[in-house]
Amino acid sequence: MSVGKRKSRIIYGPILSRRLGRSLGVDVIRNPSSRKNCNFDCVYCQLGPVTDKIQSPEDAVGCVTCSEVVEGIRHYHRSIEDIDYITFSGTCEPTLNLWVGEMIDGIRDISDVPICVITNSSLVGRKDVRQNLAKADLVVATLVSGYEDTFQNINRPASGIHLEEVIEGLAALSLMDGCKLSIEAMFVESNEFPGNSSDREISRLVEVLEYIDPDEVEVLTVTRPPAESSLHAVDEKRLKEIASYFDGKFGRNKVRLVLQGIKRGRSVLKHENIEEEVYDLILRRPCTAAQVLTSLGIEENTLSPILEKLENKSKIEPVREGRYCYYRAL
């Protein structure tokens, strides 16, 4: 089946992650009208803008089933050897699928690989969502500011989603037994609105983080082409200043400064359809050619004609971000 006619697979990757090592992705929502389903329209999102934001899990269309996910993981176990995490992420906000908790239980029955859920934190105010998240080994939850206006400017949530409920939900999740909670503090600058790396923003964010009391705080900035061209990364010097300030407040063992670049050996992966695997990876996460090579464990002379073919089919496009050329799905 051609890439243009098929549905993307639920399980994709592995992705070589700055935070999680080699991560096998799980995408838990399908929607024929869009490859991206979310209740946020984050200005920094690597997948581009969201035209129709989903309000709640009850509005989500195309949720995959627990059996589909478990069977997908079971199949991948036969073809890949070196996974650090199984990660719920992809083209959607995974907590919009209320079966995530059952999926985690099903995966544990067949795999001892740690499970991570990456969430935009939009639904942590719901008890059922927190119960699902608490079953994971690690939850990486986004929090960009302690101010409502900054939250609205950067995350651009669906109507009815407010920062106070997000903060209270994260604080409640941190008290639950089970998962480790890591807060992803994504810092950005913009030509159109104030960013979130000023002293005022950092001071307020520290107050909020002290209230939430997570296990870890990740300090990072954008590295891939963002949804809005007016957006740009916070420079490394400022990131290090922020991380150092957080160290003094929370302790060095609780703060991670996530910088671009990760060195890792190639995956040991038995391929079934390399063109599909390349497209599935780029669909969920814009990648440089080097990142695709390392993630999927293939050679440059194999990848180059695949990228050219996908580009000629208008399935992907090259996009420059700084000194790097990324391939992004169209």
TrEMBL record:
PANTHER family: FEMO COFACTOR BIOSYNTHESIS PROTEIN NIFB-RELATED, UPF0026 PROTEIN SLR1464. One of its GO terms (molecular function) is catalytic activity. This is Wyosine [tRNA(Phe)-imidazoG37] synthetase (Radical SAM superfamily). Keywords: 4Fe-4S, Iron, Iron-sulfur, Metal-binding, S-adenosyl-L-methionine. It holds the Pfam family Radical_SAM. SUPFAM superfamilies: Radical SAM enzymes, Winged helix' DNA-binding domain. Residues 37-173 form the Radical SAM core domain.
